Amino acid sequence: MNTETLFAAGLFAVVSSVTPGPNNTMLMASGVNFGFRRSQRHLWGVNLGFTFMLLCVGLGLHSVLDRFPQFYDVLRYLGSAYMLWIAWKLASARPSHTSGATAAEPGNPAILRPMGFWAAAAFQWINPKAWVMAVTCMSTYLSPNAGAAQVALLAGLFMVMGAPCSAFWVGFGQAMRGLLQDPLRLRIFNITMALALVASLYPMLKG
Length: 207
What we know:
mainly alpha, globular
């Protein structure tokens, strides 16, 4: 893999990682509701989970799954159901009047804690944008006769370039906490993020 290809792959990694999508929407919401430190497991679950997905796709998973196109339909509907559930939890969260985080009250269906590492990593497999990014990356920048070392290099490059982009969204959310200390503003923000998650389902269901 030459320098020109690596540069192009790195640019693709930055652009695709920093643009809005389900992961970044959820990471920004986590930054607002829980702060940067408490969102670290979510953040690393996204980055390492997606890196593992890239490795699997680059080593041949995509070609195997192409033989079973019904599998993509299953992923699409499972992903849609899970994202709707996350959107409902986010929209129905009742903000705390003291900390700017969601209130942990009995019977409250809100998100009571940040998404964990394994949940965020597993989410990549039902995230439509993650699939598009992984397949596009490996089919565009990887030669047909590439070995495992080149697959690992490309996946590692994506993590190095993409992780700061994901962290930016958490940091942006953290920076907004001061503006969203008011419970009403935080509630409006959470509902807006929930609607953004729902809107991101349209391209997936349309396809």
